[in-house]
Predict the structure.
Amino acid sequence: MQPRIPPPILALVAALAMRWLAHALPVAELLSGELRRLGALVAALALTLGLAAFREFRRAKTTTNPLKPGSASALVTSGVFAYSRNPMYLALLLALSGWALWLGVLTPWLMLPLFVTTLTRLQILPEERALEGLFGADYLAYRRTTARWLGRNSDRR
């Protein structure tokens, strides 16, 4: 299965759905006023993480095109990739979390698990199969030691 929808488009759709949920079903205000601006701080962190991951791909001279994972020319395991196998996707999730904070109510948070599940099925799993095919044992070793998202490795085959 080849990925067909760019992950930033999936994030944009999720962000629009989150905005709709916040206005159509504004359940349980979590943050008000100035505290909602914490979302901008989380979004800035997301941008920093995404740019750091992009820089690592550029240093390795490999593709940054998520629609063609089979064209990767290097397995990148340095920098932020030492902590997450998918820091660019983690950055999108953080950006959506910042957006949810900015919106200030509970209902937008419902989109985050849906975003993670959709991104995993449509993008991450095909990428993992492509990387295993390209880099074999090196990728499998990286996969065993580095979490898909962040934290301790919770990889389940």
Remarks:
- The mean pLDDT is 93.
